[in-house]
Amino acid sequence: MVLLTEKLTDLLEEKFREEEFNHLFLIEIKQLPGDSIQVFLDSDTGVKYEHCIKVSRFLEEHIESEGWLGEKYTIDVSSAGIGVPLKKRRQYLKNIGRKVSVELVDDHKHLKGVLVEVNEESIVVEYEEKVRIEGRKKKRLVSIKKEVAFDNIKNTIITISF
């Protein structure tokens, strides 16, 4: 038996091939107790409220016509939102140039800096650090670029400066 989340994922992939929705992509579908479904989307250009409504109606139409859930269910379609960890390479690409906090798997440290590059297997974060330069008494602030493999990322969050 195919899980409901898999069926919805397939439907969304179909919907995202349409011109109006091809900038959208799925982040996650959560099926919660009480026939409640949460769908989190992201976009290359920004998730608009109107898109969430249209996607919600599209999914409701299929859920009801196929009888996948009972008469009483809820479905919430929204953007992933600020503070939610990045999960897909496509999210990293759209956030190049923004400040990030990357929690590393291997040493449980946080790397805070600017996301400057995204490759197939890794990202590059640029940050400043005070280091002692040979022949000098005082530490100097230098810019460092660190490459981090996706396999070594526990989570990455976009940080907002006020």
Ends apart, CA distance between termini: 49 Å
Main sheet strand line-up: 7-6-5-4-8
Q: Give the tally of β-strands.
A: 8
What's the order of the H and E elements?
Answer: HEEHEHEEEEE
Largest sheet, strands/sense/barrel: 5 strands, antiparallel
Q: Tell me the name of the CATH class of the largest domain.
A: Alpha Beta
Describe this structure in words.
The chain has 162 residues and is α+β, with helices and mostly antiparallel strands. The protein has two domains: 4-79, K homology (KH) domain (GMP Synthetase, Chain A, domain 3, 2-Layer Sandwich), CATH 3.30.300.20; 89-158, SH3 type barrels (Roll), CATH 2.30.30. It contains three helices and eight strands; from the N terminus they run αββαβαβββββ. The chain has helices at 4-15, 49-66, 89-94, and strands at 24-32, 36-43, 74-79, 99-104, 110-118, 122-132, 139-149, 153-158. The strands form two sheets. It has a five-stranded antiparallel sheet with strand order 7-6-5-4-8. A three-stranded mixed sheet has the order 1-2-3, with helices on one face. The chain is elongated and about 75 Å long.
Can you tag this structure with a few keywords?
single chain; 162 residues; alpha+beta; GMP Synthetase, Chain A, domain 3; SH3 type barrels; 2 domains; 5-stranded antiparallel sheet; 3-stranded mixed sheet; 3 helices; 41% strand; elongated
